[in-house]
Amino acid sequence: MEILICMKQTFDTEEKIFIQNGEIDDDGVERIINPYCEYAVEEGIRIKEAHGGTVRLITIGGAEAEAAIRTAMAMGVDEGYRLDLTDFPADSDEQTTSECIVQLIKQKQIPYDVILCGYMSIDNGTAQVGPRIAELLGIPHISTITSLTVDGRQVQVERDVEGDLEKVESSLPILLTAQQGLNEPRYPRLPDIMKAKRKPLHRMKWDELRVDVQMIQARTKKVAILPVEEKETGQILS
Amino acid sequence: MGTANNVLIFADIRNGTLRQVTFEAISVAHQMANGGEVHLAILESLDPNQIESLKQLKLDRMWHVDHPLLKTFNLDAYVETWVHLIDLLNPDVILTGHTALGRDVSPRVAARKRIGLLSDCIKLDTSSTYEFVFTRPIYAGKAYVQRTITKPPFFVTLRPNNFVAHFDTSLDQSIEIKTFHPNLSQISLRTVVTDVVRKVTSGVDLSEANVIVAGGRGVKSKEGFAPLEELAVVLGGAVGASRGACDAGYADYALQIGQTGKVVTPDLYIACGISGAIQHLAGMSMSKTIVAINIDPEAPIFEVADYGIVGDLFEVVPLLTKEWQRINR
Ligand SMILES: Cc1cc2nc3c(=O)[nH]c(=O)nc-3n(C[C@H](O)[C@H](O)[C@H](O)COP(=O)(O)OP(=O)(O)OC[C@H]3O[C@@H](n4cnc5c(N)ncnc54)[C@H](O)[C@@H]3O)c2cc1C
Ligand SMILES: Cc1cc2nc3c(=O)[nH]c(=O)nc-3n(C[C@H](O)[C@H](O)[C@H](O)COP(=O)(O)OP(=O)(O)OC[C@H]3O[C@@H](n4cnc5c(N)ncnc54)[C@H](O)[C@@H]3O)c2cc1C
Question: One of this protein's Pfam families, by short name (chain B) (predicted)?
Answer without folding.
Answer: ETF_alpha
